[in-house]
Every structure is written in C-alpha cells, then in structure tokens.
Amino acid sequence: MVNPYIPMKARVISVRTEAKDVKTFRFKLIEGKLKFEAGQFVEVSVFGVGEAPISISSDPDVDDYFELSVRRVGSVTGSLFKLSEGAIVGIRGPYGRGWPLREFEGMDVLVVGGGCGAAPLRPAILKLLRNRSRYGRLEILYGARTPDDIMYRGEFERVAEDSDCRVLLTVDTIPPNSEWRYSIGVVTRLFDKISVDPRRSVAFICGPEVMMMYAVRDLMRLGFKPENIYLSMERRMRCGLGFCGHCQIGRKYVCLDGPVFSYSEIAPMPDKIV
After folding, report:
1. Which residues pair with 53 in a beta bridge?
2. Domain 8-95, CATH 3.40.630.30 — does that match?
3. Does residue 164 contact residue 136 with C-beta atoms inside 8 Å?
C-alpha cells in the first residue's frame, strides 16, 4: 500500500514557457504511472524547499507523462522555475474530485476560464474534444490581464480552427506594442455571445474568485441551473489530506470534497466566497 505522506519521485522531462511568469513542466514518475481525472491535483515537493498543491494540466488519457502549469508566486514555485530537464521532484497524489464530465454527456458544455484557471480546465477540454460526439455544443471562453498572460494561446487557436468547438478569447488591457486580434474586456462580457442553451447546458468555471462570483451570477441570470454550474476552488488548497484546515469552506474541505464543486453545494455554506 502506498503511504500518502511519502512523495513519489518524478523526473522533469521538459519545460516550456506558457505565459508571463508561467511555465509548463512535463514529468514522468521514476516508478509507475500517474492515473488521474480531469480537475485533480498533486502536491509537488522541491526537496529542501517545501511542497505546494498544483492542478494537473495535461490529458488524463495520456499516462506516459503528466504536466503541471505553474505560476511563479512563492518559494516553492520559484524553486521549481529554476529546475531544468532531468531534475527530480517529489509527487503526492493525485487528490480531490474532478470535473463531472460523464454526468453531462448529451448536454451542451460551456467552459469559462480566467488567468491561471485555464490549467485545471485544460484536462477537461482535452477530454471533451477527444469524446466530442458525446456532447452537444462546446464553447470555451477564456480571459487574462494582457496578451502575454494568455495561457495555451496556440492550442486554443488550433482548436478554434480545426474543430467545431467555439473559442472566444479576451484580455483586460493591451499594453503598447502588443498584438491582439480578439476581444477586450473581462471574460463575463463574452456571455452575450454564447450559443449554448442554458436549459440543457453545464458550465465549468475556474479563475480568480471574484471572476467566478460574477460568472455564476451572470450565468444564473441567463438561465443556468445552480446544480449545473461547477467551479474549481483549487486556489484554496494546502496539505491535500484535510489535516491543516486551510481549505475548509463551511463543513467541506476543498482538498477532499473538491476542488470541484457545484454552485448548489457552495451556495448554502457560511464561508462561501463565490
């Protein structure tokens, strides 16, 4: 039996720059393979520095490797940024409850992301595209601060060109000398352009909590049901095992009961943040 407190060793097999202050690391376990569901996360240990919870950002149907898209925000992620191909880290997990993709087969799907919230959504998007015939309309709305902050830009553009998935991108502002041919404004302004049917749709949302709050409010005004709006609260996690209490919302622990929740689960909680 695997001890949940002891990290498994994984090797960095590639590193690529994803956006400003964001890198995507591709890992391979030294022993075995990491089986995970879209929306789950792992605890990453940089030996001698510490560990941090990070959502898995790769295709759950590919088990030869897994990817983590990391923003540099603290000592652990700062140390990760210094690693190169061949480096060894520790991995605990995967943990948590992911996106309920199978429950909504046959329905339209709206994916709404903001900033680094694209990372936990990417595995779900890849799974939806692979099983495209099982769902109705598929639309992706994604926004970030500036063009340099857009994650997976080339990938989103290829999806828009090569599939029937509709992709709408937006940024809050365009700095001087930046190229941008898409929308300008917060991501919720794109809701006027969606074509999915709110009565038979599910929404998957991840991003800054204030963005998710307004997204939920506006989607419900359009007719989305609270039980069909799902959010990833991945920013609130810490230990991954429900011991530290850092991620507690009411009686729920994000790392154990989430990180994905329906809004109908979150709405009655006294400590809700969306």
Report:
1. 43
2. no
3. no
Two tokens at 18? 């994803």
The answer to pTM > 0.85 is: yes
Report which residue type is found at 124.
A
- Least Cα distance to 27 among 9, 40, 12 occurs for 12
CA separation for the pair 122, 170 (Å, rounded): 17
Q: How many other β-carbons are positioned within 10 Å of the β-carbon of residue 131?
A: 13
pLDDT(105) > 70: yes
Q: What one-character DSSP code corresponds to residue 190?
A: G
Integer Cα distance of 97 and 197 in angstroms: 26
Confidence of residue 244 (pLDDT cuts 50, 70, 90): low
Runs of H (alpha helix) within the chain: 75-80, 118-130, 153-162, 209-222, 254-257, 263-266
Hey, where are the domains in the chain?
8-95, 102-266
Model pLDDT for residues 135-176, shown as the tens digit of each residue: 999 999 999 999 999 999 999 999 999 999 999 999 999 999
Separation of alpha carbons 101 and 109, rounded Å: 9
Q: Is the peptide bond before 259 cis (omega within 30 degrees of 0)?
A: yes
Q: How many CA atoms, within 13 angstroms, populate the side-chain half-sphere of residue 142?
A: 25
User: What fold, for 102-266?
Assistant: Rossmann fold (3.40.50)
Q: Which of 163, 171, 167 is nearest to 187 (CA)?
A: 171
